[in-house]
Amino acid sequence: METINLKNKNPNILVIGDLMIDHYLWGSCDRISPEAPVPVLKVTKETNVLGGAGNVVNNLNALGANIGALSVIGDDKIANELKSMLESIETKNFLVVQKNRETSKKSRLIASNQQIIRYDKETTFDIDKKSEAKLLEILEKQIKNYDLVLLSDYGKGVLTNSLTKNIISLVNSQNKKVLVDPKGSDYSKYKNSYLLTPNKKEASLATNIDITDEKSLYIAISKLKNDYKLDISLITLSEEGIAIFDEELRVKPTVAREVYDVTGAGDTVLASIAFAISCGLDINTAVSFANLASGVVVGKLGSATATLDEIIEYEASLNQNSSSSQIKTKDEMINLSKKLKQKNKKIVFTNGCFDILHVGHIKYLEVAKSFGDVLILGLNTDSSVKRLKGESRPINPQEDRAYTLAALKSVDYVVQFDEDTPYELIKALNPDVLVKGGDYKGKEVVGQDLVKELRLVDFVEGKSTTSTIQRIKSND
């Protein structure tokens, strides 16, 4: 797909839904309160970003769309703050103020990138009929100025049953498309939309079908299309990609290399598909584009967006040899290990100099990988090798050794360490299994006190870097 073709495209897209502010208090917890058994957060930073339907707006803005935002807010300070945030990214505001309604603001307390608690200030009951009528009146006047309409439903009362049906009817009468990120288990109010973007869990609830394989996926996705008269039926499948059904079922696989945070990924899918369709792309290409955008976003922490330049760069990197992407810094590997643990992956760790790669190394690493799901290889840096092996070593520099090892099928990640032993690295990564050579039988292995399991693997007889070097010297 030529994502470059979307450069300098500026479609006009109207977002209707529940606007809110995501408020973050960042800091650290070093002590327990003397007043109650709770941690004390020392706040070092405070941030506010658009949330809910506002995150869809943010994603569209990053892509370069001209955006309108249509919603209902309260008559309060939060509403004024929200309007200022929309104006700062040049979004046209079509906001109806309803008295006795509180604008949504979600506050999160974060200590060392870990959320401690969230508290919400908001009104979640349905907007009144007067507000509904005002929204429809604005839509009737403005629809001619927009290529496409997005409904971002967060269940906070803006997209009521009757209003949603009237919006879809009005937009369809203008021969324009409505794309919806749905909420709840009853999708009847979204009937006659162009497409919906539920995730697998949401689709299962809406159809009462447990999606576990291709057959159940087909039944669920076709049921959504038929029951709600959709042009196209979609189900997002997290790391598996996005399923599409019109006349037939197909799954566009994900292109995310690493997943650090899936916060807001659904908003990115909705925004990027809408952007691509507004630029004239067909649904297959639009979904591929959305997969690329999501691949960028989930590689970042927190609710994030993807620019066209980032998407283009990301796509180009996927077409290159990926071995270098498997070489990580210690900090990168620590973050990635935490994510792997959360996904219940069994992590295996081994280490060594691996100076001149030979068949003994390869067979050893293949066996090591068999003990778990992910194999992390700790590689001694050049200075570390010199201290251990002498000034004449290593033969191959650390960059070459790391790249060669990362290219092996059995090795998932390579991380270099400069110490004489990998103890601190093992402690930081917290692997499940530690693997060492069979020559450590009966000996104390560095780091074995840090892991659940130690496995020893016998070396291939007569295969070693030292013997290889000796053979080379004997032939000189």
From TrEMBL:
Keywords: ATP-binding, Carbohydrate metabolism, Kinase, Multifunctional enzyme, Nucleotide-binding, Nucleotidyltransferase, Transferase
EC number: 2.7.1.167, 2.7.7.70
Protein residues bound to ATP: 199-202
Cross-referenced Gene3D superfamilies: 3.40.1190.20, HUPs
Domain Cytidyltransferase-like: 349-457
Annotated pathway: Nucleotide-sugar biosynthesis; ADP-L-glycero-beta-D-manno-heptose biosynthesis; ADP-L-glycero-beta-D-manno-heptose from D-glycero-beta-D-manno-heptose 7-phosphate: step 1/4; Nucleotide-sugar biosynthesis; ADP-L-glycero-beta-D-manno-heptose biosynthesis; ADP-L-glycero-beta-D-manno-heptose from D-glycero-beta-D-manno-heptose 7-phosphate: step 3/4
Keyword Nucleotide-binding: yes
Any GO MF annotation of the entry: kinase activity
Chain positions covered by the region annotation Ribokinase: 1-321
Annotated region described as Cytidylyltransferase, given as residue ranges: 349-476
Active-site positions on this chain: 267
Domain Carbohydrate kinase PfkB: 12-306
The keyword ATP-binding is annotated on this UniProt entry: yes
Catalyzed chemical reaction(s): D-glycero-beta-D-manno-heptose 7-phosphate + ATP = D-glycero-beta-D-manno-heptose 1,7-bisphosphate + ADP + H(+); D-glycero-beta-D-manno-heptose 1-phosphate + ATP + H(+) = ADP-D-glycero-beta-D-manno-heptose + diphosphate
UniProt cross-references to Pfam families, sorted A to Z: CTP_transf_like, PfkB
Subunit structure: Homodimer.
Function: Catalyzes the ADP transfer from ATP to D-glycero-beta-D-manno-heptose 1-phosphate, yielding ADP-D-glycero-beta-D-manno-heptose.
Family per similarity comment: In the C-terminal section; belongs to the cytidylyltransferase family. In the N-terminal section; belongs to the carbohydrate kinase PfkB family.
Protein name per the record: Bifunctional protein HldE
Organism taxonomic ancestry: Bacteria, Pseudomonadati, Campylobacterota, Epsilonproteobacteria, Campylobacterales
Gene that produces this protein: rfaE1
